[in-house]
Design a protein that fits this description.
The protein has about 300 residues and is α+β, with helices and mostly antiparallel strands. The chain contains ten helices and eleven strands. Helix 1 packs across helix 3 and helix 2 crosses helix 3. The protein is globular, with a radius of gyration of 19 Å. The mean pLDDT is about 95. It binds L-homoserine (HSE). The site of L-homoserine (HSE) has 13 residues, from helix 5.
């Protein structure tokens, strides 16, 4: 096999309570990439369609992630990467992670799979640094592994994959404004109170327990963020009203998707998710800012060959 075409899904990171540690993989939104094995060693980004992103390998998240992989595996070949972006940069649904995860997944396939999907997370994380200035795996892990993922620890990296309850659907409202992850991280405070920490880790535990026991109400109760959301929500016009509307129409919980500006809601059943999506969109459009809304099942597979 000398060429591979892959689907690189969008993801929702943080899931309210789990800043930098929790994420889930979406099914209906994602980029496509074509990766070719070539004689000339090294990594070359040959084409980017759908976004104005750097072609220079060292400046591109896919390029940096790919370099991290080939630095650990002495290949006699090089690789060309073609990126077809469908996920907008700065949208909060893992645009850079999709590129980073797709690059390492595709190259690994063409090399005969020397690394497991879990091992690839570490390489993909290097790409994230280019986009956000910090190494975090809460988007790349669900993109590579599918389902829900928990980064139990970063040093050493310890990622746990969790199956999604069957009837869980995600709604994502993407306002057509860009919020750079680095800017969204700049508003955060380095210190938090013990009271907030107690609330937050109670919710992380509750969310994980809810996923394992298919307790939708517990999942919903646990989608709370007393640390990051209060600082970031001002970057998203009408956030409180959209969140309230989602809950009012039956969402289990709602919050900021990743670093924003996208807003997500989790719902039990497709019918509720579709109703919530319409209500969130109508509420958001009151701002005068256009928005795209998606409804998606949780993608159990992650990045895949097309
Ligand atoms: N956990 C990250 C953040 C996700 O919220 O900044 C975005 O890359």
């Amino acid at each position: 096999m000398n060429e591979i075409k892959i689907f690189c899904p969008a993801t929702i990171a943080n899931l309210s309570c789990g800043f930098d540690v929790l994420g889930l993989c979406l099914e209906t939104i994602g980029d496509e990439m074509i990766i070719r094995k070539v004689k000339e060693k090294g990594i070359r980004i040959t084409k980017i369609i759908g976004a104005d992103l750097p072609l220079k390998t060292e400046k591109n998240v896919a390029g940096v992630a790919a370099l991290a992989l080939i630095n650990k595996f002495d290949s006699e070949y090089g690789f060309e990467i073609e990126i077809h972006k469908k996920i907008k940069a700065g949208s909060g649904i893992g645009s850079s992670s999709a590129s980073a995860a797709g690059a390492v997944f595709g190259i690994n396939e063409l090399l005969g799979k020397p690394f497991t999907r879990k091992e690839l997370v570490e390489f993909a994380m290097k790409g994230e640094v280019v986009a956000s200035g910090s190494e975090h795996a809460d988007n790349v892990a669900p993109c590579l592994l599918g389902g829900f993922t928990l980064v139990r620890g970063y040093n050493p990296l310890d990622v746990i994959r969790i199956d999604s309850p069957e009837e869980l659907f995600a709604v994502v409202l993407h306002p057509q404004i860009e919020v750079k992850t680095s800017d969204s991280r700049a508003v955060l405070q380095p210190m938090i109170s013990l009271k907030s920490a107690i609330t937050q880790w109670g919710n992380v535990g509750g969310l994980i327990a809810g996923l394992y026991t298919t307790d939708y109400e517990l999942i919903g109760r646990s989608l709370q963020d007393v640390i990051v959301e209060p600082l970031r929500k001002h970057l998203i016009p009408n956030f409180d009203q959209v969140k309230f509307t989602a809950m009012h129409h039956g969402a289990l919980g709602a919050g900021i998707s990743g670093a924003g500006p996208s807003i997500f809601a989790l719902c039990k059943g497709l019918a509720v998710a579709e109703k919530v999506a319409i209500a969130m969109t109508e509420e958001y459009l009151k701002t005068g800012i256009p928005a795209d809304t998606y409804v998606s099942k949780i993608n159990p597979i992650g990045v895949s060959i097309i």
